[in-house]
Amino acid sequence: MGDSCKSITLSTWREVYERTPYVIVACVASWDESSHRMEALLDELAQWYGPSAPVLRIDTDVDRAVADALQMRVIPTLRVYACGVMVCEVTGYLPFSAMHERVRDFLPE
């Protein structure tokens, strides 16, 4: 995982969520093959959207409290939040082009 995508705790989530209008959140697990493939995708999304929509990573093996608080039940899941509201959810791994197609209308460029 590159420096552009950050793992989070519940307190980190609250800080970012409260100060950033757009947030991309991915829920992954270290034991899941699709989650491993998602790592490069998360870095690409972080590079594409930059500071306008931080990409946050929840590892359910480490940060179960965050996954529970956000009610993320499927691994991997990617969500887009805009102004405090979940506006897009994608479950499962998709290549960058397909994932970008699904989320781009919900994020600033």
Sequence-ordered SSE layout with sheet pairings:
Layout: E1 5-7, H1 10-19, E2 22-28, H2 33-49, E3 55-59, H3 64-69, E4 77-82, E5 85-91, H4 96-103
Parallel strand pairs: 1-3, 2-3
Antiparallel strand pairs: 2-4, 4-5
Describe this structure in words.
By secondary structure, the chain is of the alpha/beta class. Helix content is about 40%, strand content about 25%. The longest helix has 17 residues, at about 35-50. The chain is globular, with a radius of gyration of 12 Å. The mean pLDDT is about 85.
List its traits.
38% helix; 4 helices; 109 residues; alpha/beta; 5 strands; 26% strand; single chain
Concise structural overview:
The protein is built from 4 helices and 5 strands, in the order E-H-E-H-E-H-E-E-H. It is α/β, with parallel strands linked by helices and 109 residues long.
Q: What percent of residues adopt helix (DSSP H or I)?
A: 25-40%
Straight-line N-to-C gap: 22 Å
Give the overall silhouette: globular
Topology order in helix (H) and strand (E) letters: EHEHEHEEH
Task: Using the CA coordinates, give the radius of gyration.
Answer: 12 Å
The main sheet comes to: 5 strands, mixed
Widest β-sheet, arrangement of strands = 1-3-2-4-5
Structural class of the secondary elements?
A: alpha/beta
- What percentage of amino acids are in beta strands? 25-35%
